[in-house]
Design brief:
The chain is mainly α. It has helices at 32-48, 68-91, 93-128, 133-137, 141-145, 147-155, 166-175, 177-184, 188-205, 221-241, 243-247, 249-268, 272-275, 280-285, 296-312, 326-333, 335-355, 360-399, and strands at 5-9, 15-16, 19-20, 22-26. 68% of the residues lie in helices and 4% in strands. The model is unreliable at 1-18 (pLDDT under 50).
């Protein structure tokens, strides 16, 4: 997604064993587009996770095949490769791999914390406000009926309450990333081909991980890894490889046409008048939208969006520094905290609407309040990190 790249190849620090590192990383300047769209993905996930609300119409899932989850995983693969790939090249595989696994541990701890708070909140509100169906709706009843067994399955990511599926997927992808990143730095095209073959095999043979107490993962890691590694491939040189597509008017026209097609097909489901535009055979190819196994048209839709964004929104665009976009960018920069709080707030928003009013005005108020809280959290974490960094610098200076 970056416009400028520089080649990192064959230097002494890039040599590990007999295989030569060859990766085209972006420049060190931060690309605000990544923060912007990761923030947008977090907002979309929050709004989209409020069940039976009109707030989902403010997300992308009703206007195309892909949604905030696709965008979140794609950008996560891109940024993880940038950060830890460059670290591996400059400081060696061991340093990069251990720092990456430290991030996996942070993600796992965050998941356990939100898991605990979420399930306790569902249980408390369901029983104290006489809304017992919340236990089934948010998939926590089994935790109450078989607490020890269910908690054990939760620790190994097999048991997941409703809407707590994205972070376990991210943990699994990041946990398997160190050896794949080592290969990607040397054979980026080979890794991408392997990723695509795994994706096709998983869809054909129905590979997935088991869930508890029954079923499979809502986000199939064997298929969703393709989006993650597509982002990584772009980060280590793929973006430079496909620059000709970004500049191609034909590619832009095809991408825009597919986005419009996805918009019409998606809107045709709730709008009968649009439904009449498509033959049954064509319409059924895209409905229902296969999210669990990541339908190919979701990947194409995401890539089409990426191409259009890069074409019309360069990294130096003035709009990226405008005050209007600053809240979204800040939420993207503090993505983990915003994501975790957003998942919990989506549950609280649903309960508030159910106990008070589910009218459009009430939904808009709840949605705006939630986004305000997420933005406040993001600004606070940004300020807190600056304070910690300043204190650490002062302490180090004092010791010296």
């Amino acid at each position: 997604m970056h416009d400028a790249v520089h080649e990192v190849a064959g230097s002494q620090s890039a040599q590990r064993g007999s295989t030569r590192v060859r990766a085209a990383f972006v420049t060190t300047q931060r690309d605000l587009r990544l923060d912007l769209f990761r923030g947008f993905a977090n907002w979309a996930i929050f709004l989209g996770h409020i069940p039976d609300a009109v707030l989902s119409w403010f997300t992308t899932r009703n206007y195309g095949f892909s949604d905030g989850a696709d965008l979140f995983v794609f950008i996560s693969g891109y940024t993880a490769t940038l950060v830890f790939g460059r670290m591996m090249v400059e400081r060696g595989f061991l340093i990069g791999a251990t720092r990456l696994m430290r991030r996996v541990w942070q993600l796992y701890v965050a998941h356990l914390l939100i898991f605990l708070v979420y399930t306790v909140a569902v249980h408390y509100l369901a029983h104290n406000f006489d809304v017992p169906h919340l236990m089934d709706q948010f998939n926590v009843r089994n935790l109450m009926d078989h607490p020890v067994e269910t908690l054990g399955e939760g620790l190994i990511l097999k048991f997941k309450p409703l809407n707590l599926d994205v972070l376990p997927l991210y943990i699994v992808l990041m946990g398997s990333f160190p050896p794949i990143l080592w290969l990607m730095l040397r054979f980026r095209n080979g890794v991408l081909i392997g990723s695509a073959l795994l994706y096709l095999a998983a869809r054909h043979f129905h590979w997935n991980l088991p869930s508890y107490p029954a079923g499979v993962w809502y986000f199939n890691p064997f298929t969703w890894q393709l989006v993650f590694f597509l982002g990584g491939w772009l980060a280590v040189g793929g973006a430079h490889t496909v620059q000709f597509l970004v500049r191609s008017r034909a590619a832009l026209a095809v991408s825009l046409s597919f986005l419009i097609f996805g918009l019409l097909i998606t809107l045709a489901q709730p709008i009968p008048l649009l439904r009449e535009l498509f033959p049954d055979a064509l319409f059924e190819l895209f409905t229902p939208n296969d999210k669990t196994n990541l339908a190919p048209y979701r990947v194409l839709h995401l890539l089409s969006l990426a191409l259009v964004v890069v074409h019309f929104l360069p990294s130096h665009a003035r709009v990226l520094t405008s005050p209007v976009l600053r809240p979204l960018i800040k939420c993207g920069q503090q993505s983990l905290e915003v994501f975790c709080v957003g998942v919990f707030l989506s549950f609280l928003a649903h309960v508030v609407l159910e106990l008070t009013s589910d009218g459009i005005i009430a939904q808009l108020i709840v949605g705006v309040a939630g986004l305000w809280i997420l933005t406040t959290i993001a600004y606070y974490r940004s300020w807190s990190k600056r304070v910690d960094k300043s204190a650490h610098h002062e302490a180090r200076t004092t010791r010296e």
